[in-house]
Structure prediction request, 787 residues.
Amino acid sequence: MPAFAGMTTENDEGTTMNQPASAYFLEERHDPNETHTLSVLVQNEPGVLARVIGLFSGRGYNIESLTVSETESQKHLSRITIVTTGTPMVIEQIKHQLDRMVPVYRVVDMTITGRSIERELAMVKVRGGGDHRVEALRLADAFRARVIDATIESFVFEITGNSAKISQFIDLMRPLGLVEVSRTGVAAIGRGPEGM
Amino acid sequence: MTDKSHDPNQMTGAAMIVRALIDHGVQHLFGYPGGAVLPIYDEIFQQSEVEHILVRHEQGAGHAAEGYARSTGKPGVVLVTSGPGATNMVTPLTDALMDSIPLVCITGQVPTHLIGNDAFQECDTVGITRPCTKHNWLVRDVNDLAKVLHEAFYVATSGRPGPVLVDVPKDVQFAVGTYHPPRKSDVHVSYTPRVKGDAAQIRKAVALLASAKRPVIYSGGGVINSGTEASKLLRDLVEATGFPITSTLMGLGAYPASGKNWLGMLGMHGTYEANMAMHDCDVMLCIGARFDDRITGRVDAFSPGSKKIHIDIDPSSINKNIRVDVPIIGDAANVMGDLLQVFKAEAKKPDIKAWWQEIAVWRARNSLAYKKNNDIILPQYAIESLFAATRGRDTYITTEVGQHQMWAAQFFGFEEPHRWMTSGGLGTMGYGLPAALGVQVAHPDSLVIDIAGDASVQMTMQEMSTAVQYELPIKIFILNNQYMGMVRQWQQLLHGNRLSHSYSEALPDFVKLADAFGCVGLQAIKPGDLDGALKEMISVKRPVLFDCRVATLENCFPMIPSGKAHNEMLLPVEATDEATAAAFAGGKALV
Ligand SMILES: Cc1ncc(C[n+]2csc(CCOP(=O)(O)OP(=O)(O)O)c2C)c(N)n1
Ligand SMILES: [Mg+2]
Prediction:
């Protein structure tokens, strides 16, 4: 098709082409991201967690933290707490996508209700002696972390609080001989007398 | 102790499956046997209420069931074996999910004690199909089977319809348990699709419609899914408001193509007037469509000056791609009924004469025009001739995917819903031929035509054998341009005309192939051959493969180049090579 030579030349040394030609409209969205905590009440049945996680991976949503456990065993209900980030439009999508799943009862955006408490538990192992050991204990006390295991050269601390507090504690333990950390992820609940 | 042997509800899992199909009014089942479903096939053998259609590939069963569902409004039902049977269903399940088609797929699974052992023909069917079904179940206990089957039918057909899958291990098929007929409590209490629209939102919508100066109705597949009543209400709504109406590929036929307010299809290959009306409107009423990327073009330039009302049964469709002003969640027919009532009671037709005049100017551009040719058959002409030849007949059209699909949408006029079966969301080549089978099973006396492409048709060609076996007189009308035309067009427009692997090399002789299958082969090479051959195709009461040789390098226009807005369409008459090059070159920065 010689008549298209004009195009071909343009193509040759990609003057205007900073993205590959595509059948899709490749647009970037520049809305700022927000972090939201979602509480999701689901039927506790095989595969339900895979469905939720698959939704996030399949649609490219972020999971910052995911906590799940059965909360009402007679009714086979589990509560999943998800901390996610995205533009407001994406957050809205996530909620609707979760809500339309067959085994999902309710989705509550704890961040929008603005009246929720979030807690996470971490176990933090620190190894060392001398001043480091003393300093670790002192800091643990300041953070109200408890010692739940001790040897002559190590401690395991248990700490609860919001995620920021836990991260701060872990950062402080780093120079004092931090070995490893196990975190539960965030659990959230609304304030006041009403349930979700 | 009760004597269970006389309880008619005591039966094997396999018997329960057939019984549940009967209880749900299933008359036809598309399937393919294998080790893990033999007990079910044994039950099928011993009854006559459900007719089983044996396909040649499980994908064919899936698309046939889709065609069946789309043309009847009833769920399509599929039965396949474990492992490869199940994996072959992934494409049709995904296709049905994208286009909201109700399918119930039953798969066999290896016995429960072997699950997880990499047993022969084992695969993680529920894992593989989780993202391509609305919901799926693995049934480990025969006493759960009846409940799950009934729930499966409910989930597939209620709310936004979609495919579901029930995986039944072979030991569960053999085991004896208690069956019960469908009942309400079979369904998850957590599943409650919303049908009725919010009254306050409907009022807001009516106020907007009544104040519109440049309104447009944009309807989609949701209106078709909602049932014939929805199409009727849509027509009433157009009549009551006097508004222009366009529709997506999936929505064709809800409003008749001969209707005076019809603008034609919108989107990438839609008409100029439809896309311009979308771009310049002040009030947009979207019903059962989802602002898909083939519709919107560049999102930030999409209909910049309009207030948007969006009716959809699926809340996740709202504000997904485009922010709307008045969302109404509910079933299309239900909401349109309420909307119409409020509109008639409280509003009157706004005066939009000036808007119609603007539209008339766009229409006059005649965006579907093409240059006639006396020597070679142009694909547009072929569809127009097909349309003319089938006029007044009870016709159903399916398509494959490619240029021919777009030409079919542009040049075949659909007057009724449920007459047009095409793979919109997934764009599955190989859909049309088996879909036509399904349509023909549901409508044995109707004229069912697959408008096909030479490349697509080879993907599920083996189903011609099914057509012959069941005497299903489907017509496969191949627009044979000897290319993967749509791919070639994109390569020409966007990749410097480097036609990498888009030539249909070594095409079979379709006429001889028809012969080999035991169906009728026809061919048209010159425009003069076409009418006679079409007549023959329609009159012969056997399956036909029609090799319609069309211009090889014809492009599908009009077209919104990628990264462009609705008002930057490229029209065929203006699509000189230079203009086309310029349009696409400018768009490249964004494409
Ligand atoms: C299963 C599948 N594979 C690949 C594609 C990509 N694709 C879209 S259109 C097309 C060419 C179709 O060629 P043909 O059936 O001859 O139709 P034409 O465009 O020539 O009318 C291809 C390969 C697809 N849509 N589906
Ligand atoms: Mg072709």
